[in-house]
Design a protein that fits this description.
The chain has 121 residues and is an alpha/beta fold. It has one domain (11-113). It contains five helices and five strands, in the order αβααβββαβα. It has helices at residues 11-20, 30-36, 41-50, 73-80, 103-113; strands spanning 26-29, 54-59, 61-62, 68-69, 92-94. The strands form two sheets. The chain has a three-stranded parallel sheet with strand order 1-2-5. Strands 3-4 form a two-stranded antiparallel sheet. The longest helix has 11 residues, at 103-113. It is globular, with a radius of gyration of 14 Å.
């Protein structure tokens, strides 16, 4: 779900991939998903169809150069909208490069972002 790649960015594209590779898994990068579709609508559909294939979730913010940055409050709000369809058992990798003093804040933002809108932590 990276804007720099030619495939794997939509439900239709992933259906083709999984038809040819029925045992393949999915690494869901929420930041790249938001970069491709800021509404997260397509990625909601992908998660509904292929959430059972997720083996890792990557979280961060992605800038216009496709580099991973710290999670913004806007990203938290966007990610929360699809959090309820991300399998809770999927391991999460925080991809933002942060200094030691920022780790706690980034972890709190990641937890908040992956907590569904109507859930209480």
């Amino acid at each position: 779900m990276d804007k720099r790649k030619r495939t794997g960015r939509s439900l239709a594209e992933l259906e083709t991939v999984f038809r040819h590779l029925p045992d393949a898994s999915l690494c869901f990068d929420v930041a790249h998903a938001r970069q491709v579709d800021t509404s997260m609508t397509e990625h909601y559909l992908i998660l509904r169809a292929f959430g059972h294939r997720i083996r890792q979730v990557h979280i961060s913010e992605v800038n216009t150069s496709s580099r991973h940055d710290r999670i913004s409050l806007g990203a938290v709000r966007a990610f929360k909208e699809i959090a309820h369809v991300i399998p809770p058992s999927a391991p999460v990798i925080i991809e933002a490069a942060v200094g030691e003093a920022e780790i706690e804040r980034e972890l709190e933002r990641a937890i908040d972002a992956l907590t569904p809108v109507n859930s209480v932590r």
